[in-house]
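chain below, 657 aa
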Amino acid sequence: MKIALVGNQNSGKTTLFNLLTGMNQKIGNWPGVTIERKSGIIKGTSHELIDLPGIYSFSPYTSEEEVSRKFVFEENPDLIINIVDATSLERSLYLTTQLLELDTKVIIALNMTDMLEKKGISLDVDLLSKELGVEIVQISALKKLGIEKLIDTVDTLDIKVKNKKQIFNIEIEKVIDSIKDQISVKHSRFIAIKAIEKDVITSKYIGNEFDYDIKKLEDKFETDGEEFIASGRYDYIVNLTQKASNKKIKKENVTDKLDKVFLNKWLAIPIFIVIIALIYVLAVGIVGSSTVDMVGDLVDKLSKGVNNLLVNLKASEWIISLICDGIIAGVGAVLGFVPQLIILFICLSLLETTGYMSRIAFMLDKAFKKVGLSGKSIIPFIVGSGCSVPGIMASRAVEDDDERKMTIMLTPFVPCSAKLPIIALFAGAFFPNSKGLIAALLYIVAIVIIFISAFIMKKFIYKKQSTAFISELPEYKLPSVRYVGRDVFDKTIEFIKRAGTIILLCSIVIWFLLSFSFKFEYGVDVEDSILASIGKAISWFFYPILGQMNWRASVSAIQGLVAKEQVVSSLEIIAGFAEGVSETDPTAIFNAAYNFTKFGAFAFMLFNLFSAPCFGAIGAMKRELGSKKRMFIAVLFQTGLAYVLASIIGIIGILVS
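prediction:
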């Protein structure tokens, strides 16, 4: 049996999907779009469960809603499990009323029923089930309650398609029946209602000719079909929830008390800054820095062990150099920062699962609107802190076209996981006593740059009024160890995969360019290598940033366009070819191979953090912006802004030295 899992965002749908399928999951993309598609086999059964994107309606307002509706109409699932948030019935049932109009069997998984008493709500589930004419199973996805009963219900119950509930005004129902009688395809009631709303689905599946003048209804209700249908749904839902639920006057709960602090007019922003600072102090400073030396020692021992093994096997000199000085040095330099990344991922995941992320979006909304964005833009920025590619794709949550384009162009400014090794390496080498604070400062600088850039875009390019941001703030809750662990594991594995593919390939290329001259002579002096020649040709471009003609740093910065992690990998490999470098002392590496000043180091960090992102993110920008021209404009804007900012710091360094 093919089953679709449908529900609102933040209703516990992903948690329920993971509980039902366990590890029997496959992840890909829906045909024609880059929205993630998850499917899996329900534990103990042969039923396939397809997790549809989180939606609020079955009208095609977003690409997620289009994907969901297309699936139901074209892939014909045998059953729909509609997950409903028991604590937000009015919001959730709008989608439910649409699902019940389909000719597909439906079960409601009523989630968060364990929270009703805490919120002072009593709910008559039997009455709700009778009124809707659908089977309801009470669950708590977070506490794993009712899951087995839901599986048993799906597996054993002969769920019948009941007569569609008449929820509209009697005159509207007569029109629906009249149009429905003229429809011979599946889901006739749903399509008849969509015909009144003048939805594109009617022309796609059955044409637009009906023996009824919908304009008569519009004249009677003095509004268009879409509005009086929506009003009819809400009237029905409000009456139903009043009959089935009773909300008591409750005392101020923990969420109310915490919001008085975290959303306080004067304290909200300072608390946000302190939280971000603490995250980076932990990841780059206090805890994270202690792990770098440990991993560095392991990589060093591995390199020496492999070197001795290859010497004993009488391997050629260039093979030993390729493996030890190229592959192990390059990939090991990036993997050394994995523990710090894990700490960062844990902190960000905790912010998300506790409900604080929603507060960040809420409190930044007012400031965002002043520069042409809305609070919804914070969603891609938060996702982009892990990786810019999904962050750019998450910009689809922003409905307004201008705001979405601005968000796509600005998301790469957020320090992603690939940029953390750059921050950690330079902060540790040049600001050892305040490396955590320097890392946090760069994150705050990124937010400031986003605001300034958005202001410039709004002033000269996108001049429309920004849209309102509407979101329900969830209750604060203790984080799920299972969810946090899975989230951190997935992100860490993705980072390691990049190190094992892109970084590995780039490390081999860098080693080759350092080891050979243009005459393909092996073992030449590093200053006569192919890479040195290329670096010397472009080093003038980075002179205002570095305050010197430094070809080593220049070629490393250019490689950031391939992958930001490659900046650190390249710096490490090139340093290994410089004489008098200690492989275990970051400061010695920089002093011997690069001779950075503190101003030059900070400017170099700024350029690499805010210049055009990696090739993967550039490709994502092209897809989401819809043209190569817009993509090139975005890349030029990002790199130009990064160059100007870094040059200002670099020139100040030159003047004061």
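Strands lie at 2-7, 25-29, 36-41, 48-51, 79-85, 105-111, 121-123, 135-138, 245-247. Residues 481-515 form the longest helix (35 residues).
thats it, cya
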